[in-house]
Task: inverse folding
RNA sequence: GUCCCCGUAGCUCAACGGAUAGAGCGUUUGCUUGCGGAGCAAAAGGUUGGGUGUUCGAAUCACCCCGGGGACACCA
């Protein structure tokens, strides 16, 4: 990774240069000029002559130049390009991987939707992002656990049980009303029907309490299973499903209450128990135990954070919808109060996915039964397309989703452009193998680069650098954009340079380019969780 | 009232404070023998919502407006 070497050597920032300014560039002269009040160009001269003294370093480049306002531009040497190209073939599916993570344990929690209904599009965004980030960090040498927090306690789940119970009573010919606060989606009726068919309830129909309990347990199990199915169909698999009830059963929630009490971090008011969050950076205090005796979500969050830490994770990443923005501040206040290492917790918020129907925005609501499910979408639009749609965007962008438009546009999605480039490369490789052409490391003849070849190699060897950066800033969409760029370079190369049937040595050389292209596309798409067709 | 995110080409979105603001879709025009045309080449399309600052340099940072989304519960 030449970029890293320049960075080390200079001790300043280095970036990929815009077209026409070499391969890498640094603004160090401008920065130094500001600090020392010297002219950028003279500062640049000094740096430049220093760099040139280091023979080993300057051998990496065909040219190092000082440009206009005060940039140093680096042009990669031909041999470096050729060596790195061989590196791609040598490392194959490991190309781009690293050991920087040093096996540090990372927990990534994502999706974590309540088991009270199907997954929504927003959950899909979380799923696509979490899965990809996990794969990337793994590739970079971390030991990643993908985790799903299952809220199997509390009011929403109780409400779910009651909803199913009421539908169940209806099915059994009992007169019951169905209040507005019940879950309105059709899937509730489906669950109630299965509940009846399975004969899962053995008690009396008049014992409403017992019915609710039984229906709740049944519904949570059914829905959890279908959540797993939906995610599997979307190509996402969590390593750990962590039920909230486990925290309660192991007394971890009570332990927090106890500790807060001892350390004078909580107090009673209006029959409820409050956490003194205002002592830890918040505007107000927060309820952790309601006057009806039930503990709040926040308390579980505290216990859960502590639990994760206890399991030995070095870093805990939460992927949350932007509607949890305020929760983040509350959780952090709790971390401070409990003296847990705040820097090990990282909260990533993605902006919400809103639904557009016939030009109108519709607020999705699970309770009101008004949403598009991930399953519905994936039935109409291939999972690869949906993932690309999410992963090409920054987490900070709102997504307005129009199902009709998505269906219509699906076959124009850029993901096909990338897959097509891959298929073309595979096709050439197949053909070459068929007629016995092999790639070779040592070529007896070195050809000058064709423009499209050079651009392609340079793009290919950026891959490890892009991954390293993305692993730092978690901006997965940068990786997505890179792969799209790369596909463009590949298609241009394909269009202009004949591979099979070219002059003997040249044929071999271009074949290495083809092979390297296939490798990088494969590695990149795999990290995004997008599939690689052999044929289309 | 406080806090978070966004406003960039007709549309959907990119752009570590850097050099000429880029892709895809859509529009217009070309490209058969060469390996898959789901491609390639080119054109048109922009006062980066508006303003004031900060500095060598601002789509990016600060402040003020305008517009959109979200959060500020004994909801989850």
Result:
């Amino acid at each position: 990774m030449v970029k890293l070497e320049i960075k080390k050597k200079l001790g300043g920032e280095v970036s990929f240069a815009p077209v026409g300014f070499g391969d890498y560039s640094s603004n160090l002269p401008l920065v130094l000029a500001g600090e020392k009040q010297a002219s950028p160009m003279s500062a640049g001269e000094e740096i430049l002559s220093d760099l040139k003294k280091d023979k080993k370093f300057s051998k990496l480049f065909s040219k190092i130049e000082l440009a206009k306002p005060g940039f140093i531009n680096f042009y990669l040497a031909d041999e470096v390009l050729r060596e790195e190209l061989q590196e791609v073939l040598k490392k194959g599916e490991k190309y781009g991987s690293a050991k920087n993570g040093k096996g540090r344990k990372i927990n990534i929690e994502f999706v974590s939707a309540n088991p009270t209904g199907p997954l929504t599009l927003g959950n899909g965004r979380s799923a696509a992002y979490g899965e990809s980030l996990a794969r990337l960090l793994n590739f970079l040498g971390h030991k990643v656990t993908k985790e799903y927090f299952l809220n199997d306690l509390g009011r929403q789940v109780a409400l779910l049980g009651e909803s199913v119970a009421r539908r169940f009573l209806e099915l059994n010919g009992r007169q019951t009303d169905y209040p507005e606060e019940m879950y309105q989606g059709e899937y509730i009726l489906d669950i109630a029907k299965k509940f009846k068919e399975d004969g899962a309830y053995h008690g009396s129909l008049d014992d409403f309490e017992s019915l609710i309990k039984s229906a709740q347990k049944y519904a949570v199990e059914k829905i959890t299973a279908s959540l797993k199915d939906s995610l599997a169909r979307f190509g996402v698999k969590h390593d750990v499903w962590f039920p909230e009830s486990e925290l309660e059963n192991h007394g971890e929630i009570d332990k927090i209450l106890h500790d807060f009490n001892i350390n004078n971090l909580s107090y009673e008011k209006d029959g409820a128990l409050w956490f003194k969050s205002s002592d830890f950076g918040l505007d107000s205090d927060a309820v952790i135990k309601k006057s009806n005796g039930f503990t709040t979500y926040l308390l579980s969050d505290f216990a859960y954070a502590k639990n994760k830490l206890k399991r030995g994770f070095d870093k805990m990443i939460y992927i949350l919808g932007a509607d949890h923005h305020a929760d983040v501040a509350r959780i952090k206040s709790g971390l401070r109060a409990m003296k847990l290492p705040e820097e090990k917790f990282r909260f990533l918020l993605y902006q919400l996915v809103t639904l557009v129907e016939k030009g109108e925005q519709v607020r999705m609501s699970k309770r009101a039964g008004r949403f598009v499910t991930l399953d519905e979408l994936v039935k109409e639009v291939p999972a690869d397309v949906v993932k690309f749609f999410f992963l090409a965007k920054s987490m900070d962008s709102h997504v307005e989703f129009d199902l009709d438009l998505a269906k219509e546009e699906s076959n124009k999605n850029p993901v096909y452009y990338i897959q097509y480039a891959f298929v073309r490369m595979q096709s050439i490789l197949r053909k070459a193998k068929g007629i016995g052409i092999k790639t070779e490391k040592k070529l007896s003849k070195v050809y000058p680069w064709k423009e499209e070849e050079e651009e392609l190699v340079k793009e290919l060897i950026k891959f490890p650098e892009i991954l390293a950066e993305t692993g730092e800033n978690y901006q997965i969409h940068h990786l997505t954009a890179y792969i799209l760029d790369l596909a463009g370079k590949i298609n241009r190369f394909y269009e202009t340079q004949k591979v099979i049937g070219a002059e003997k040595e040249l044929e071999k050389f271009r074949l290495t380019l083809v092979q390297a292209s296939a490798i990088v596309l494969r590695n990149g798409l795999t990290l995004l969780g997008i599939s690689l067709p052999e044929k289309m």
In short: Residues 208-233 of chain A form the longest helix (26 residues). Chain A has three domains: 2-76, 110-240+341-411, 413-528.
